[in-house]
Structures are given as structure tokens and as C-alpha cells.
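Re: the 225-residue chain
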Amino acid sequence: MREETGRKCVIFDMDGVVMDSARLEMFGWRIVAEEEGLPDIESYYGDSLGKNPKEVSDVFQRHYGFDGFERLNARVYEKMRDQYVDGHIPLRAGALETLELLKANGVGIGLATGTESDTVYDLLEANQVKSYFESIWCGDMVTLCKPDPELYLRCCEEMGAVPAETYGVDDGGNGILALHAAGMKAILPEDQYHPTPEIIALCDAVLPSMYAVRDYLREKLDLKD
């Protein structure tokens, strides 16, 4: 059994946590769903969070009974691009301030996302935040994505972090299930997904914003401004 190191680490999901992509993607899906007559798009979207593109396509087919994800997702991204800032998806409000607080206090910072690595690195570099992350694990780098814990466990291992001592920040039910399976402390900053009582019970904290995440971590990790 690995000895506890006492090192302070926090691992973030990307979409809807570091990036303001969940809000923009849900904006696009609502428009496309109305145009296509797709019911209960929020339920589909919640089930898709944390998965890689192949898994998301499978979720779409289970929800709607036809293989139309790639075609409709392309239209969603057209709607999203209308909302981009400086030609790309911006950071979620409060994300940069949270990263800056952690870095200033020597806290290890990781990223665990179901999004493919090319997209992840492009977004991090466009927003000038790639250097904050000591370890980055993406959906095309593992066998299984969330709710499987592999992404989070790989990130912990690379950082030398003990899962039970490490906070994970994820805005989706699949991500919270992955954190729970990894034995980590789960923080859910609500965005487009609103957790069920079962998911809430697995969280150390459910918070309204990334600013609230920053304040929560400041207190729990005894960080200085």
C-alpha cells in the first residue's frame, strides 16, 4: 500500500470546469434539439458528460434510437462558435483565479478530461493556462472514460498524489462517480448539470461557481492569498 505523502493536489475536469464549454454546448444542443424535435435534451447531455466522442455517440443512440450524433454535433458546434470569445471557448468565470491561488501556494494541479488530447491542448494554449497543469490526462489516453476512475487515478499516479488526500473538481454525474470510485474528495461546481440526490451524497461539496470552489479550497487546504 502506498504511504500517504501529505502533498496537496487538486485535479480538474476541463469542460464546464476550467472551460466555459458546457454552457456553450448546452446552448447549441437546445437550439438543435428544438429544430430536430429531440425531447429531454438535458437528460441526454447529463449522461454524456465526461465521456469520449465514441462513448457520447453511443449515449446519443441509446437516448434517441438513431445514429445521428456526428451530424447534429457538427451543427451544435456551429451554434457554439457564434458565442466564442477571441475565436475560441473562454475559461469559465473563476477558473483562472482558482488556478492562480493553487499555483501560488505550491499545490499540485492536474487535469482529467474525456475530451481528446488535440482539442484539450489547443484550448489550454489558446487560453494560456497549459503551464498551470502538472499532469494532463485525456479521453484518448485511457481505455475507459468516466464514470470509470482511470483518468483520475492515472493523474494521481503521475503527480505522486494519494487519491484519498486529493480533491477532484468535476461538473458532471459521471465525473463524480469516477471520483468516488477513485477514492478522491469530490467537488461539483454546478453548471448545466444539476445533480441528483444520489450524486450529491457522493460529493464533499456542491458549489454554485468556480469562485466558490476557489474559496472552498482556500479554506480546506489552508491556502494564502
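The mean pLDDT is 95.
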